[in-house]
Design brief:
This protein is an alpha/beta fold. It has 17 helices and 15 strands. Helix 6 runs parallel beside helix 7. It is globular.
């Protein structure tokens, strides 16, 4: 409740939190827009594959050129300006950088960046939730072993959902389910970067104005991001994945208490303790009023008569039986809220969500028939979408994690809507991300044969 006060104290003492940002795309730019308005924070450096594009984004969000004109990291630290370059290794290794914000969106690169930061004793905020979905529990373990913090990014829906789950449990409520909202119809699974804006509700001109990446936004639309973020929520809270994957039930915010009950009580859940995603569209495509599309929610249970009576007395919206209710946050502001993670880690030494379980996995599933020799292009692309699955099911069947379905070749045909296995692709087993994934599987589920 007092992060801002503590940030002002750091500003007044001349000891700001010192940040390094890797990746200055859309999410990174949203954070950059807030940095000049936040006391007690010094963004020492930005590393991006295109420093020129990073500078364009700084100008786009309103930074004056003198704020990012430092010729090197040492100069940036001394002058309290920001260096922009392409050398992420130098940024991570610089002794004055305390917290690394991994914001590339590339899960394979993110793993390398996180591990390097741990070796240099740096805390990490991992915006690239795709990496967290396929090896976050092991990244968190390696961070603890290095004596640093690894965290989900506040502003993204997983961290906000984790906050609601923590609120519920710390208040004494049993958590029935938790998750996020989404705009969803089943045929969106087939969407590609060529069709995303029509489905999303933007024009190509609006997308270009905002510097929006069609592949990244398509990963939201085709169900990959909801699966990825649901896996992150499950693995950070201990909730579990539905056996058949996400159901995307349609409903308004006031419908959530009724939807998020076990089927035996009239809801959509196989059992209590699951993650799920609520759609803002009815099956006919019509919009549901008062939706949770851009937000997060937690469903809790009044498991005594006294608490149910309290719900009734205080006019809480519940299911018809008065047993279940939800707390929600209707909007998430993405990178505009990332400063909460920076402050929480830098001032309180607390992550804003961190994987401590391996309960859920996201598996690559064919958008269309895939031929031998084709190269997979990962989430949001033309070849695969992500499907949520219990981790034990994924490992026992040998499914290919979506986070590794980038740039690898199909070696036997795969039919549309079929989930890919390791046997369907040619994987370089010397690859760092591959080895890390296999290490995590053996550590968290050692009894499963592979």
């Amino acid at each position: 409740m007092n992060l801002y006060t503590k940030l002002r104290e750091r500003e007044a003492s001349g000891t700001p939190l010192r940040i390094g940002l890797i990746g200055a795309g859309k999410f990174g730019s949203m954070y950059l827009a807030q940095v000049p308005r936040t006391p007690g924070v010094h963004l020492v450096g930005i590393a991006d594959l295109s420093p020129t594009a990073a500078c364009r984004n700084l100008a786009r969000v309103g930074w004056p050129e003198e704020r990012y004109g430092a010729s090197c990291l040492d100069e940036a630290f001394k002058r309290r300006t920001t260096h922009v370059g392409g050398d992420w290794e130098a940024l991570i290794a610089h002794p004055e950088v305390e917290i690394i914000v991994e914001c590339t969106g590339n899960p394979v690169a993110a793993v390398e960046h996180c591990l390097a930061a741990f070796r240099h004793g740096k805390d990490v905020i991992n915006v690239t939730v795709e990496a967290d979905a396929f090896c976050g529990p092991l990244l968190a373990l390696k961070a603890r072993q290095a004596g640093v913090i690894y965290s989900l990014a506040y502003g993204d829906q997983p961290a906000l959902a984790c906050e609601l789950v923590d609120w519920a449990r710390a208040s004494g409520f049993p958590v029935v389910a938790a998750g996020r909202g989404h705009k969803w119809l089943p045929h969106y699974r087939e969407s590609t970067p060529d069709t995303v804006w029509d489905f999303w509700g933007l024009t190509a001109e609006q997308a270009e104005r905002g510097g929006l990446n069609p592949k990244m936004f398509n990963a939201f639309l085709d169900g990959s991001k909801p699966a990825i973020e649901s896996a992150a929520i499950a693995n950070a809270t201990g909730l579990e994945a539905p056996e058949e994957g996400l159901a995307f039930p349609p409903g308004s915010i006031d419908d959530i208490p009724t939807l998020m009950r076990p089927r035996s009580e009239g809801g959509v859940l196989d059992r209590k303790g699951l993650v799920e995603v609520v759609s803002c569209l009815r099956p006919d495509g019509s919009q549901i009023p008062y939706d949770i599309r851009k937000g997060v929610w937690v469903s809790i249970e009044a498991d005594t008569d006294y608490i149910r009576h309290c719900f009734e007395e205080y006019k809480v919206v519940t299911d018809p039986g008065g047993r279940y209710m939800c707390l929600y946050k209707r909007w998430h502001l993405i990178g505009l809220e990332l400063g909460i993670s920076v402050a929480s880690i830098g001032l309180r030494r607390e992550p804003t969500g961190v994987a401590t379980f391996f309960n859920a996995d996201v598996i690559a599933t064919a958008k269309r028939d895939l031929r031998v020799g084709e190269i997979l292009d990962g989430e949001g692309g033309y070849t695969v979408f992500g499907k949520l699955a219990p981790a034990k099911t994924s490992l026992a069947t040998g499914f290919l994690p979506l986070g590794l379905a980038h740039g690898i070749e199909i070696k036997r045909p795969v039919s549309k809507d079929q989930s890919l296995t390791w046997a369907d692709v040619a994987v370089d087993d010397s690859f760092l991300a591959y080895k890390l994934r296999r290490e995590m599987e053996a550590l968290f589920h050692p009894a499963i044969e592979r």
